[in-house]
Amino acid sequence: MPYNVGIIGAARRHQGTGPFIARSFARLGHNIAGVVGTSANSSKQACSDLAANYNIATQAYGDFEHLASEQTLDVIVISSPPSTHLSYLEQALNHGCHVFCEKPLWWPAGDIINLTEADYLDKIEHIIGLARSNRCYIHINTQWPYTLKDFIRLHPSALINNKITQFAMHLSPQSEGISMLVDAASHGLSMLYQLAGRGNIDNLRTRQEKSSVAIDFDYLHFDGCIKTTLGFVQSNETPKPASYQINGFGVKRMVALPEYQIQLQSDLQTVSILDPLDAPIMDFLAALDAQLETDESTLRQGAVHLYQLIKHFIKS
Do the domain assignments include residue 184? Predict the structure, then answer.
């Protein structure tokens, strides 16, 4: 059945995905009931852009409360900055809405030197508890794992015997310093979870230059160890350069705007792929139809690993 969807953060400012997520929900047959921005003006501008670029007619609101009071909502998309996620998650879940949330689930703003792992995870447990008590489903937007089948098209010999010993991912967030990890580290973690399942991070090492960070670690899982590198280079370029490598075989992501057409490119070949935003949204919608419960263990694992990476970066 069609769902009524509210979008928190529907503007394209900086590196936001809000308008692309709205487009995917709309072309999958769902109603964009309204958008909430950082101000009334930004909300109105987001509505204008959605109408002009994707023929989506919707309403602008200054805050969630106003949106929820005027619209019947089934789903809330949270694509605003990570430090705002906690408040919007609380409001959406207490309103009985399912949530499609950009990564990470939440990360605080400001000085986090004294943020303990226990305090951080308490907030994550608070969110999980709200979802459980209100019978709502939370889905984190993980796009990159959906490119793996196309990676295999380009490198059919990369996963001989299904043994993965090396993984590297290089991304180009617009942010700097700690914010690079907050904005982008979850992409690499989501790939490791897809490739190897649950695991632990060990032997962390950091290499840092003026506008780049590389974090090396061992990802220990039930079947072995993946030597991992997550590299981040600050960039204002659009589309953002991005690539990954498995067992020494690499691909680059190519993006054509404004259509957001995605390609994967190896040294010898380029293949067009389906919009990786549609796939996680389709999985999210299928989970709602099936009345599935939130994957709480994956939310916890992602939070623990993100905290470990950022804290190590701070200490280094």
Answer: yes
Q: Are 199 and 209 in contact (CB under 8 A)?
A: no
Please report the pLDDT score of residue 228 as a whole number: 98
The enclosing domain of 256 has a CATH number of 3.30.360.10
Six-digit token string for 288: 């709602």
Report yes or no on 110 lying in a domain.
Answer: yes
The Cα 68–Cα 8 span in angstroms is: 12
Q: Has residue 23 been placed in a domain?
A: yes
Residue 132 is assigned to a structural domain of this protein: yes
* DSSP code at position 228: E
What contacts 121, CB < 8 A, 6 or more positions away?
300, 303, 304, 307
Contact 80, 8 (CB under 8 A): yes
Residue 30 and residue 92 in one domain: yes
Residues 8 and 136 in one domain: yes
Contact between 10 and 79 under an 8 Å Cβ cutoff? The reply is yes
pLDDT digit string, tens, across residues 27-79: 999 999 999 998 888 899 999 999 999 999 999 999 999 999 999 999 999 99
Instruction: Count up the domains in the chain and report the number.
Output: 2
**Dist. CA 29–CA 25, nearest whole Å:** 7
Which pTM does this prediction carry? 0.93
Indicate the helix (H) or strand (E) that contains 79: none
3-state secondary structure of 296: helix
Mean pLDDT taken over the chain: 92
Q: Are residues 112 and 158 in the same domain?
A: no
- Domain CATH for 9: 3.40.50.720
Using the predicted structure, report yes or no on whether residue 181 has a pLDDT greater than 80.
Answer: yes
126: tokens are: 């608070």
Look at residue 214 in the predicted model and tell me its pLDDT.
95
For residue 119 the two structure tokens come to 């305090």
